[in-house]
Write a structure and sequence with these properties.
Helix content: 25-40%
Radius of gyration: 17 Å
Order of helices and strands: HEEHHEHHHEEE
Number of helices: 6
Largest sheet: 4 strands, antiparallel
Distance between the termini: 39 Å
Length: 156
């Protein structure tokens, strides 16, 4: 067990929960970030390099519009947003800007598959913004720890 540092009254605000600007996962506080915790935006170097692209913003907008066009209690799969964005912009540059860690898929046959992980990141960012919830098996789950397929719904 490691040693935990005692919180002084002012430190509790410094340890306020944060969410990664790129992937939407919870950022865990680290002692080495104690001096500049308010400036920490990314959970990793990979997220810092990836950032948030125009395709990421399109995926967020697609999730919002898909949910708005359906009944209030329905859910969507992130793949629906990926398919919508891929269909709207079959431009190879848009699909290629999904990031260097995107899985390799044949963009000629299924360009939306390359956008799946960016769509999941977009959903996690929307959860952090308080706009949607992520569910698995009908239950709301923590987006930072959710593994496997999930659905997205409006906040209830």
């Amino acid at each position: 067990m490691g040693r935990q540092r005692d919180l002084v009254d002012g430190d509790s605000a410094a340890r306020a929960p944060k969410t990664c600007a790129s992937c939407g996962r919870r950022i865990e506080w680290r002692a080495r970030w104690a001096r500049d915790w308010e400036h920490v935006r990314w959970c990793s170097d990979a997220c810092r390099r990836r950032g948030v692209t125009a395709v990421d913003r399109e995926l967020e907008a697609s999730i919002r519009s898909l949910l708005a066009s359906r009944a209030a209690d329905t859910t969507i799969c992130p793949s629906e947003a990926a398919r919508a964005v891929a269909a709207a912009s079959l431009d190879a540059r848009a699909v290629a800007s999904a990031g260097p860690d995107a899985p390799t898929a044949d963009p000629a046959t299924e360009p939306w598959r390359v956008l799946m992980e960016p769509a999941r990141r977009a959903a996690r960012r929307l959860v952090a913004a308080g706009e949607v919830e992520i569910t698995q098996g009908g239950r709301v789950v923590d987006p930072s720890t959710a593994k496997g397929p999930f659905r997205v719904r409006r906040v209830r």
